[in-house]
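CATEGORY: protein folding

GOAL: derive structure tokens
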Amino acid sequence: MLNKEYIYARIILNLMPQTKPIISIENVVASATVNQPIDLTQITRSFPDVEYHPDQFPGLVFRLKAPKTATLIFSSGKMVCTGAKSEEQAIKAVKTVVQKLKRGNVEIYNEPQIEIQNIVASASLGGKVHLEEAAKQLPRSMYEPEQFPGLIHRMTDPKTVILLFASGKLVCTGAKKEVEVYKAVNNLHNLLEQKGLMIY
């Protein structure tokens, strides 16, 4: 006769996810402001490598090698930083750009106020997914394979949008914190497992 511990262990194992999602942060977008106008022409004089074509686009592009990012700077003092792989990198990039500008004799008196706007991550769930069945069973989901090969799932907590593919790969967007990305992906993975929609 099987002992109780063994039975409990089997039940717990069956409830646990069979795989752990592999998650990679691809891009963190941060907005910032120094709450004052910035002379973009002065930046081009001090930093000849920047990209500035005011007849095509009102912003100036300031690229950093470390962390590898591109920061759009507008004459209003607003900035948008893209390309960072973490919240920490995005914040560091904006602060580095502002420090460089100050050293280059660009008049900036205030410290930047920085806010993370969006985190884009990719993940692999370690198994395939029944997309058609998932579209029926997952709330707030849309799947129209003739238009787009992935299922679009809108999660309310944390507030994110996940593009899920039959391969078990996905893209998560809309998170404002890295922890929200991990929570969203793990929530979806657990939901798919509970409903028997994962294929291993």
Summary: The mean pLDDT is 93. The chain has five helices and twelve strands. The longest strand covers residues 22-33. Helices lie at 4-15, 40-46, 87-103, 131-137, 178-194.
